Amino acid sequence: MASNQGNEQGKGAGSSQKTSESGSAKGTSKRGFAAMNEEQQREIASKGGQAAHQKGTAHEFDSEEARRAGQKGGEAVSRNREHMAEIGRKGGESRQSAQRANESRSTAARSGGTGRQGGKDEDDNG
User: Fold this and answer.
1) Most exposed: 59, 85, 99, 115, by fewest CB within 10 Å?
2) What is the pTM of this model?
3) CB-CB contact of 31 with 23 (8 Å)
4) CA separation for the pair 100, 18 (Å, rounded)
5) Are 58 and 49 in contact (CB under 8 A)?
6) pLDDT value, residue 81
7) What is the dihedral of CA 45, 50, 56, 60, to 10 degrees?
8) How far apart are CA 73 and CA 29, in angstroms?
9) How far apart are alpha carbons 73 and 20 in whole angstroms?
């Protein structure tokens, strides 16, 4: 009987419209919570969170527990060598560009030009 209900539901006019609008590659459609827009989902989830707090069953991280969770996540991320190499590469590029910018400023200052940077420092200090 349950299989008949599923077949009937799939043949219904409303169901075929949903499938064409938001169906996945398999031809299934979103139903219930997943079919709601983001605002409706957030509103319902918020009510659930409030109810859990009132009931006393909501979980709140203390600082030690949050620290352990962050450490665990960091360990998991650091196992991905490609990801870590990319982070290091970006950091090196950023540091290199900052170093070049500092060198160009100091070269301009040594050449006798009192650029904006020099004027700013005098105003801040005096």
Assistant:
1) 59
2) 0.32
3) no
4) 57
5) yes
6) 92
7) 70
8) 34
9) 39
